[in-house]
Amino acid sequence: MRKGTAGFLAFLILAFVAVSAWFVLKPDKKGVFLHLEPHGYTVVIDAGHGGVDGGTQALNGILESGINLEIAKKTDLLLRFYGVNTVMVRTEDISIHNPESNTIAEKKRTDLQNRVKLANNTPDAFLMSIHQNSFSESQYFGAQVFYAEDSVSKLFAEVLQQQFYKLDAENTRKIKQAYDSIYLMNNVTCPAVLVECGFLSNPKDSANLTTADYQTKVAMTLTSAFTMYNR
To answer: By C-alpha distance, which of 108, 94, 112, 96 is closest to 183?
Structure first.
C-alpha cells in the first residue's frame, strides 16, 4: 500500500472513531435535543478567500485562505465518509472570479458572486462557509457561528456552536445572524452558516488553527454537528 493511501485510510479510521466517541449525542444546555431534517442535503463547503484574496493572517504569517482550505478538505472527506453529498467551492488556493476580471476589486466581487451562484444552483444545498476571525486586540478568542435569515440555518448554528463549546470549554461566544454586509450569506437562497473558527489575532487560537491536528478537530466539529443532529 502506498504511503499516501495508508495515510488517508488512517485519517478516516481515526476520524470515525474520534467523531463517534468524542462527540456523543447530548442535549443542549436546556436539556432539549435539537434535530434537523437530514436527508437530501448537499453540503456546499466554501473555503473562504483564496488566490488573490488571502484573507487575514495568523501570527506566524500563514494566510487564512490556506487554513480555510485545509479545514474544508478535511470536512469534505469526513462528510462523504458518513454518506453526505458534498460540493467543494474550491480545492486549491485559487479565486473563482470571472476570467475577464482585471482588478483585484473586480476579482473579489465576481468571486463572491460565483460562490453565491454555485450554492444557489446546487439542488437541496446547505452552505458551510469556513473562515477565520481577527481583531486589533489579541485577547479575543473562540469560534463563532453566523447564520442566514431562516429557521433551519439558525437551528443548525445553535447545534454547531454547542459542538464548538466541546472543542474549547472556555469559549462563550454566541451565534449571530449574519451582518447585512456579508454578501455571501445575504444572497444565498439555501440554509447557510458562516463559521469563524477562531481568532488568528489571538496567540492560542492562532497556534492551534495553524496545526493539522487542530484543523482536523475543527473538521470533526463541523461533521459531528451535521451528522449527529441530522438523522
So the answer is: 112
Cell 484574496, located at residue: 53
- SS3 string, 170-185, reads CCCCCCEECCCCCHHH
11-20, 22-31, 73-82, 117-126: the lowest-pLDDT one: 22-31
Q: Under DSSP, is residue 53 helix (H, G, I), strand (E, B) or coil?
A: strand
Q: Give the model confidence (pLDDT) of 173-185 as tens digits.
A: 999 999 988 999 9
Pairing of strands 176-177, 144-147: parallel
Quickly count: other Cβ atoms within 10 Å of residue 2's Cβ: 7
Please give the model's pTM, rounded to 2 decimal places.
0.84
Distance in angstroms (rounded) separating the CA atoms of residues 97 and 207 = 31
Nearest to 226 by CA among 200, 198, 195: 195
Q: What is the DSSP string of 192-230?
A: EEEEEEEETTSHHHHHHHTSHHHHHHHHHHHHHHHHHT-
pLDDT digit string, tens, across residues 18-61: 554 444 434 444 444 444 444 579 999 999 999 999 999 999 99
